[in-house]
Amino acid sequence: MINGADTAWMLTASVLVLFMTLPGLALFYAGLVRAKNILSVLMHCVAVACLVSFLWFAGAYSLAFVGSNPWIGDLSQAFLAGVERGAVHPATTIPDTVYIMFQMTFAIITPGLIIGAYVERIKFSAVLLFSGLWLIVVYAPVAHWVWGGGWLATLGVKDYAGGIVVHTTAGISALIVAIALGKREGFPHHVHPPHAPWIVMVGAAMLWVGWFGFNAGSALTSGADAGMAMLVTHLAAAVATLTWMAIEWARFGKPSLVGSVTGTIAGLATVTPASGFIGPYGAVIIGVVSGCICYSAVQIVKLRYFVDDSLDVFAVHGIGGMTGTLLTAILMPIVLGGVGFADNVTLQSQLGVQAVGVIAAAVWSAGMSYALIKITELLVGVRVVPDFETQGLDLSTHGESGYNVAFGGSTQ
Known about the structure:
Elements: H1 4-32, H2 38-65, H3 96-118, H4 124-147, H5 151-155, H6 163-181, H7 197-216, H8 224-252, H9 257-271, H10 280-304, H11 313-331, H12 347-379, H13 386-391, H14 393-398
């Protein structure tokens, strides 16, 4: 039967997760780019959200969550055929419609994360084509593997809210797209700093709040599991923020706002797969580890390998999601406040399963994303012409400006 309390919580959680993308992620990314590209980033986030919503209805949901094939779902519920108003989703106490909507918000934010890898230099048509294909070819199969009863679910992989399905797929794909697309003009020695750090902080705060729907909502009930997931999510974010802040303070003598809230997102991404399986002690450990590892990853990707993953999607979300997926096995024991292991499962065996899940999703995401970006290049082209990049995508692509004042210096 439908439970009113569970349904009310899941309706709220769905709103919170959508709030993560619109406006949270949109503002977080918009503040990080130059002033002449702020509207293009906002447009990317809005357009991808709308496109994914329609494709989810048209067949992506069915491919991800319907059918018994271990690799991909079927299209028996394409266009939500057979989804009745009062139907209860299997193994839950919430309506089918609410579950579909909740999962739609996850599908929206995942290709939305990839936007951060290609800002300031990509064609708008390429954003739409790549994101739509990516949802069907990458996201839907991996979601089916883990959450739709596929082969990784059968293997026993633990991914509470998307360390594999969301962050590994998006992070790895972002790295591939950034490499294929090439560097922005002036990278890495003459890249302009974020034009509005305060907007970055506002967006990060919205992501932080929305993440409670992301992780606690994945309990699919309003009970104790949701409460613990919310608690550990907040603790991990707070500790990761302090960790990133301390690293910058020690290295440069000044902790930055942008760096601190980047640490927040690193902690949130890393705790996501573990949030339903660990306790507060595990959350603190994840906060420290994620702050250190993701900070190092940012430096390595940009300064050692000179990959222009513009807004650090791979280093923060990819590395965070993969790290958190592996830490899930390590931090699950009851002695650390976790839920413990199933019968005949040990820390070592669970860690092996987690590694298989990470590797499988990473390899699939990398291979398919490379193929999709090449297809996109062939069909519509990928990169804007140099004059458009210099002018900024706001005016050259959308015919609008984010500000009605003239900016000079680094803000341009």
